[in-house]
Amino acid sequence: MSKVFALVDCNNFYASCEKLFRPDLKHKPIVVLSNNDGCVVARSQEVKALGIKMGGPVFKLADDIKRYGITCFSSNYALYADMSNRVMTLLEEAAPAIEIYSIDEAFLDLSGIDACTDLLTFSQNLKRKVDKNTGIPVCIGMAPSKTLAKLANHAAKKYRATGGVVNLMPPERQTRLLALIDVVEVWGVGRRLSKKLYQLGIHTALDLAQADVNMIREQFSVVLERTVRELNGVACIDLEQVPPSRQQVICSRSFAYRITEKSQMREALCKYVTRAAERLREQKRTAKLVSVFIRTSAYSPNEAQYANSLVAELACPSDDTRDLIAIVETSLDKLWREGFYYAKAGVVLLDLYDAEQGQCELFSSSRPQEKSKELMQVLDKINQKGLGHVYFAAQGTAPVWQMKREYLSPAYTTNWQDLPKVR
């Protein structure tokens, strides 16, 4: 039985999430902005048609935004994460195995499904089901390898006649499509490698598929050799049904305004480490090391420059927010320098352990705080319900440093107060 992989990719995901609860914007141009509303990080199809590039600074696009009536949205991560979970849940119900590749992409293993139903019909029905149940449009590409499935999905998005679904299982279809695609578009190649491939006369995905694997291994790497085999329909990359454990958890932000007071920096860092601790508990991990950094803006040459970081060690690996806040505050006392305009800060949790396996230092008298696990579970449960929010006083009550989000849409699906009202 041959392998069948499918890549399901949400179309213009952030923009689609924003349009979902704004039917008045269904066919209107919209953009989603980065932290502090600085740059364009997502575009609707209408904006792409206008030629507006990804990553463009908003202040440079002011004239285009006014001329074309483009609606701007600040990044609404709570909304995107929840809608992603809804899409992935539907995919998990439909497929025997799934690998969630990113917030808006998933690989499915459809091997054997063609014994029960036609693959194209199955995928078309799945696409309709996701659209109907979540409102998020998707494209689906099927092929005998993950690399080919990526290219099939690319074709499903690019060619409207496909209806958003491409079956690349037949070898003759693979050959036709590979001849149309620039080698830079192949998964894992990118701009740096493509320049070297161009020099060897390898310009299309088909050229790469027909290249000598021994030459590719000698001049490039085993990884690119594997890509060549994948382009020829040999499945070398299997699904990762259990994501590899992360080696670190990071939470950092640029500030909406420069910070000059230590108390404000303390609030910001305590907020960041609180969020990092929540992620740590989601992964059922504990951290032994905590890295804290603060810095001024590298893009303001007229301002005095300062950047520093510090790594501190806990006596016992912990996921208790109280432990992590205490070590962050101690680190800030050592890092802080008066007289600077700070633009960014962050916390990195390192040296991670499974929650049940972390060991305290042999001769240390420190031990985990009493009922730590139960308290953190209660905090997380309350905060995840969306009915209210419990936070530590160290985070402050009215932070002026919070990132700018002037165009933030409501948390339609995760906060009771933000539920859309029908009159």
The CATH architecture category of the largest domain equals 2-Layer Sandwich
Helices and strands: which structural class?
alpha+beta
Distance between the termini: 55 Å
- Spatial sequence of strands, sheet with the most strands: 5-6-1-7-8
Which shape, going by the Cα principal axes? globular
CATH topology of the largest domain, by name, is Alpha-Beta Plaits
The tally of structural domains comes to: 3
What can you tell me about this protein's structure?
The chain has 423 residues and is of the alpha+beta class. The chain folds into three domains: 5-9 and 81-231, Reverse transcriptase/Diguanylate cyclase domain (Alpha-Beta Plaits); 13-79, MutS, DNA mismatch repair protein, domain I (3-Layer(aba) Sandwich); 249-395, Dna Ligase, domain 1. 38% of the residues lie in helices and 20% in strands. It has 14 helices and twelve strands. The protein has a five-stranded mixed beta sheet. Strands 9-12-10-11 form a four-stranded antiparallel beta sheet, covered by helices on one side. The longest helix has 21 residues, at 262-282. The chain is globular and about 65 Å long. The protein starts with a strand and ends in a 38-residue tail after the last helix.
